[in-house]
Amino acid sequence: MKAVLDAFWRAVAYCLHPRVMLVSLLPLVLMASMLAGLGYFFWEQAIDQVAMGLERIEMLRQAWAWMERWNLGGLKAVLAPMVVILVVTPVVVIGCLLLVALGMTPVLVRLVAARRFPQLQALRGASFLRSALWSAGVSAAALLACLLTLPLWLLPPVALILPALIWGWLTCKVMAFDALAEHASAEERHALLRQHAMPLLVMGIVCGYLGAAPSLIWSLGMVAIVWAPILLPLSVWLYTLVFAFSSLWFVHYCLAALQQYRVRQGVVQMPASVAPLADSSDVEL
């Protein structure tokens, strides 16, 4: 736990680094531009198609009639846009995660390695293509899990737990792999992911809850629908910040774990400026 918290506060500090802030703009610009284009061309059509589909559901037609009697007919106009947003949000989250993992994480790994672990040899156990395929595979699995469990997201208790667990599992799988891809060999990566499976999963779940926070924007209801063209880029920016922090957290933890692992294996000598993973009070930030 001490190593997890140590990596946590280092990640927070690194988020303020000018280079990190500059690199974080790229995923934001790409994702926001894509959403703006899709929204401009397909927003109204998507809402119309969803509204037509909802009208065909007999149970909902009965619900509309009940709401009209109670002067709640305005909810009908909100439902179709909210369904569209509910479907789009997992795609936005996964898109932001992939952009950060493939675009930012290699830069962040080199930054952290140069500042904290200058003597850590890079064995390049996974190529960029391997990382991209791994990220795409686990992202597809997470997206499938979202689609299969989407009706459960409407239940308040489940909505607080299930999305965070899915995002946490996805974040853990993607970020831990990419954090070790450049410096660890394939054997070292497998060993570290197995030995540190529980701390990494806990970190992923925490990041999953942080990643779910931007979704609270849509709890504003009708206001969120009206301001969707502005709130969507804002949510993308928040997702980018969360995943940039998540990447730094995993990079700090995984590289420290790799350094400690090699010391135990007798592969390298512990540099004087790098303390063990469990006691890093003297480590350079």
C-alpha end-to-end distance? 19 Å
Which residues sit in consecutive blocks of at least 5 with pLDDT less than 50? 269-284
Structural class: mainly alpha
> What oligomeric state is this?
single chain
Largest sheet: none
Report the helical percentage.
over 70%
Given the structure, what is the number of helices?
Answer: 12
Mean pLDDT: 78
- How many beta-strand elements? 0
Number of domains: 1
Sketch the topology as an H/E string, one letter per element.
HHHHHHHHHHHH
Summary, kept brief:
This protein has 285 residues and is mainly alpha-helical.
What does this structure look like?
With 285 residues, this protein is mainly alpha-helical. It has one domain (2-265). Helices cover 77% and strands 0% of the residues. It has twelve helices and no strands. The chain has helices at residues 2-14, 18-23, 25-55, 58-69, 74-116, 128-149, 156-159, 162-181, 186-195, 197-212, 222-226, 228-265. Helix 5 runs antiparallel to helix 6 (128-149), helix 5 (74-116) packs parallel to helix 8 and helix 8 (162-181) packs across helix 10 (197-212). Residues 269-284 have low confidence and may be disordered.
Properties at a glance:
elongated; mainly alpha; disordered C terminus; 285 residues; 12 helices
Secondary structure layout:
Layout: H1 2-14, H2 18-23, H3 25-55, H4 58-69, H5 74-116, H6 128-149, H7 156-159, H8 162-181, H9 186-195, H10 197-212, H11 222-226, H12 228-265
Helix pairs in contact: 1-12, 3-5, 3-12, 5-6, 5-8, 5-12, 6-8, 8-10, 8-12, 10-12
